[in-house]
Write the structure tokens for this entry.
Amino acid sequence: RSLKPSGELRLVKPKDWTSGFYPGVLWFMYDLSRDTTWKAYATAFTLLLEDEKNNARDHDIGFKMMSSYGHAYRLTGNKHYREVLIQSAKTLTTRYNNKVGCIRSWDHHKDKWQFPVIIDNMMNLELLFFAWKETNDSLFYNVANEHAQTTLKNHFRKDYSSYHVVSYDTISGDVMEKNTHQGFAHESSWARGQAWALYGYTMMYRETKNTVYLDQAENIADYIINTAQFPDDYIPYWDYHAPNITDEPKDASSAAIMASAFYELSSFSMNNGELYIRTADRIMTSLSSEKYLCKQGSNKGFLLAHSTGSKPKNSEVDVPLVYADYYFLEALKRKGNLLENN
Ligand code: GLY
């Protein structure tokens, strides 16, 4: 997942939300190089996660299974991977609450939140669309669509920046709290949260072709580019409203997620495609520079330095994070696809 302050690898169990990203990195290496050595490693690390298909303890099953089994199925067509993904999607739907119209994100912090939904949860919906397309069962589509609609209504401020945590009353379905967990303040814009929102609504448009989602993605893009504004190197600080901007840790993971999302959004946008490609290119140029790209043989093989997991908890500050590497490789792949198609 990351490096410890001692420089040792920080490994995680399959239940961790990041467990799918290392297999995902290996699948991208195979995908981009066609070297079957990567495929062998990717397969081995993917199969370690199979039991997670029944883990309903949080919403992260989408992150875990799409980044591992999703690529395994895409790149091999092996039906076993498909079955695991469909079971995982079924597990995810058990966390959906009809009254709220959302999938519950976490079961922890029950003292603080009755039914917490975090903006990150948008990413898990991709698993439901996979299952819908494979089975034709509209339950998967409807849960994903309702979750995205409810989130669109309640998670965004007027300027299209996103709250991190929205908690709901399960009896009335009403919003109770709008908070942060990993950001600087309840009313600030946690950088990775904005990136999840951009990626999530871009994906919603890809899967539904509902232009409400495209408009939302473009409004979020406008917020990030014009209102929040990038630092000179286009790699955000960990929160757009962190108190000591220019002297705060960066979050390369949010930059990598955005680059990948901007490349995809560029292919859907009627008017802003070039702007989104230019923005993603600038992010990728920075991430590929000496400052962010780890030297070969350093940092235990991570690709990118300077990400931030949770600054408020002083956890994983200014370190490599496996999901930064994962979305960086996905962005490279998407850039390659754009070049091929033009
Ligand atoms: N989904 C957890 C995070 O972005 O830190």
